[in-house]
Request: fold
Amino acid sequence: MIDSHCHLADEAFITDLSAVIDRARQAGLVHALCILAAGDKGEAERAAGAAALWSGLRTSVGVHPHKAGDFIGREDDAAALVKAELAAAPLARAIGEIGLDYHYDFAPKDTQQRVFRAQLQLARDLDLPVIIHTREAEEDTLAILRDESRGTLRGVLHCFTGTERLAEEALALGFHISFAGIVTFPKATMLRSIAPMVPADRLLCETDSPYLAPTPYRGKRNEPAWVARVVEELAMLRGVATVELQERIASNFSALFRP
Reply:
């Protein structure tokens, strides 16, 4: 079993990181991908500490759309920063999370778009998968992915909460779709209807911990061990055995991220 997207280097895990990792192992996790913010030295140091405790941990580095505003007028510097940090991170396997977020006004839309494009171009140059964050920005996300893909980009739309059209078009571009704890929420009816539609070889799961704990843990700090609950729910929605789906998702993760 895997957690394809977590923030294990977040300050939320400082006091009990070792116990969190022990619970992940006991739950059967083989790998987890820890998402790091480019330029955050504290996160990088905490990720190194987590990796020392867990040989199955891998990382990804990117400039999140919330931080794109730091690069107004020098958007290419965002990709240069990510490139430098990837070179210094032997456990890095992807670029991300990157993308567009129009829900908050943390960075101008045009700046977000240019920072996003610069990192997609870097991913093509380095032949690395990308981890896409998109919120209230489906049309622009798809337009940029279509424009920049050129048949060579690969990656995943993480913590998918979008429309059926977004899923279909992302899949047509060759991307994976990853579901987090939201798929366990009874009122997430559209998301729960999309989950069975994703081809088995394009499906991933995640916690996005410490955020978005699945039922029955809602309201608590999320952690990688609870990805088991996400897989269980996906298996139920898709009408397959949980063990079978665990194996399929683990295989998809290995094919995409080459851990």
